[in-house]
Design a protein that fits this description.
By secondary structure, the chain is an alpha/beta fold. The protein has six helices and seven strands. A seven-stranded mixed sheet has the order 3-2-1-4-5-6-7, sandwiched between helices.
C-alpha cells in the first residue's frame, strides 16, 4: 500500500503512521506529503523522513481547479493507493475525489455526525463536546466525500469525558486515540478486513 498525505499543520497523525510503517507494523510505504502551508510541521517531518513533499496551495495555484488537478498529478506521480488527510484544513477537490473514489480518508477528533461539519475541527470540536455536557467523545475515521465529515464511517474509538476535563486535556486524550485508530484502520484495510469501494 502506497500512502499519500494531505496535511496543513503539525502532522502528528501522519508521523504516527510513518512510524508504524518504519517499524513494520503497517505493510505500507509513505511515499508523498502535500501541504497547503509552506511552513507546516508536516513538510518538515517529511523532509526529516526523506519523503518527497510539496507545498500546493492557493498561493502556488490561485485557480482552485488548477490546484485540484496538480494535487492529483502529484499523487499519481507517486503511485499513491490511499490518500490520508492528517489535519488538512481544506476541502478536497472534485477531481481528487473522482480520481481516488472511496480511497481518500480522514480522521476526525470527535464522534460523527454529532460533532462534525463546516467549522468543526480541532479545538472547536472539544469545546462543543464540553459545552454539550457529552459523556463520551472520541475519534472517527471516515471516507472523504464532497461534504465535510459526511462520508461513510470506517472506524470509531470512544473515551469517556471526565468532569475535570478541559479542552486541553480532552484534546490530548483524543489525539492519542487518533494516532492508534488511524494506524489500526489502515492495517485493517490492508488485510482486507475493511473493504473500500
Amino acid at each position: 500500500m502506497r500512502l499519500g498525505f494531505l496535511a496543513s499543520h503539525n502532522g502528528s497523525n501522519m508521523q504516527a503512521i510513518i512510524d508504524a510503517c518504519r517499524a513494520g507494523r503497517l505493510a505500507a510505504s509513505p511515499v508523498v506529503v502535500i501541504s497547503n502551508n509552506a511552513d507546516s510541521g508536516a513538510l518538515q517531518r517529511a523532509r526529516n523522513e526523506g519523503i518527497p513533499c510539496y507545498h500546493l496551495s492557493g498561493r502556488t495555484h490561485p485557480d482552485p481547479e488548477d490546484l485540484d488537478r496538480e494535487i492529483v498529478d502529484v499523487l499519481l506521480k507517486h503511485d499513491v493507493n490511499l490518500t490520508l488527510l492528517a489535519g488538512y484544513m481544506k476541502k478536497v477537490g472534485p477531481v481528487t475525489l473522482a480520481t481516488f473514489p472511496g480511497h481518500v480518508l480522514n480522521i476526525h477528533p470527535g464522534l460523527l455526525p454529532d460533532y462534525g461539519g463546516p467549522g468543526m475541527y480541532g479545538r472547536r470540536v472539544h469545546e462543543a463536546v464540553l459545552a454539550a455536557g457529552a459523556r463520551t467523545t472520541g475519534a472517527t475515521v471516515h471516507v472523504v466525500d464532497a461534504i465535510y465529515d459526511n462520508g461513510p464511517v470506517l472506524a470509531v474509538r470512544e473515551t469517556a469525558v471526565q468532569k475535570s476535563d478541559t479542552v486541553e486535556t480532552l484534546a490530548r486524550r483524543v489525539l492519542a486515540l487518533e494516532h492508534a485508530l488511524y494506524t489500526e484502520t489502515i492495517s485493517r484495510i490492508i488485510c482486507g478486513e475493511i473493504r473500500l469501494s
